[in-house]
Specification:
The chain is an all-alpha fold and 203 residues long. The chain contains 6 helices and no strands. Helix 2 packs antiparallel against helix 3 and helix 2 runs antiparallel to helix 5.
Length: 203
């Protein structure tokens, strides 16, 4: 007679389903809205090829945050969903990078000329390494080091560091374009979602 494994119950430090969904919605809507707003800067600019760069990059940041929150709920299904969401985030990063690369090539501009670009490349490389370790080593079905607690801890802390680096990248990009009366308000909104994310990930 076979028995099903008991469903994993929430433990200290995990998030409830309702709070996770609510936080994920707030973070995603805010970050993607900021990305769309950045795509229209400088003020009164039209939507153009470049506009997809901040939109896709901000979506990637949102995916990393949401993926981490889902993983924090614990359990087998949430671990797999964490991986799927994180892969979507990496694909968004690469797509955003491809857009800005194409724009610079079309405009005859040099690459990697600002702090924003350096942060962006570092975030991309960080995210790819996390994805490889997670997919190959820590996958709950076939990860060959999935029971290694040290690797899991490093992956977790690395994910948090990559998320904070992604926020720094996004902020540096916004700051380069924020001029005029709307600047302080946008920075305040960004700061709010940054603090919310930090509290959700670290508390």
């Amino acid at each position: 007679m076979s028995t099903k494994a008991p469903a994993s119950s929430p433990t200290a430090g995990t998030l409830s389903t309702g709070s996770t969904y609510a936080a994920s919605l707030v973070v995603t809507v805010t970050l993607v809205s900021l990305g769309a707003y950045a795509g229209l800067l400088p003020s009164n600019s039209e939507w153009r090829l470049f506009s997809y760069h901040p939109l896709l990059m901000s979506l990637g940041v949102a995916c990393f945050v949401v993926g981490a929150l889902v993983k924090k709920m614990g359990g087998y299904a949430n671990t797999k969903m964490h991986g799927i969401i994180s892969v979507v985030g990496v694909v968004s990063y690469f797509s955003g990078y491809a857009i800005i690369y194409t724009c610079k090539e079309n405009g005859g501009k040099e690459h990697l000329t600002s702090d924003h670009s350096y942060y962006g490349v570092a975030t991309l490389l960080f995210a790819v390494n996390l994805m490889i370790v997670g997919a190959v080593g820590l996958h709950p079905d076939f990860g060959f080091i999935k029971t290694n607690k040290l690797v899991g801890k490093i992956h977790k802390m690395g994910g948090r560091a990559a998320t904070l680096l992604a926020f720094a990248t996004m902020y540096s990009g916004l700051s380069d374009k924020l001029v005029g009366a709307s600047g302080p308000e946008i920075r305040m909104v960004f700061g709010g979602v940054y603090v919310l994310t930090a509290l959700l990930l670290f508390v």
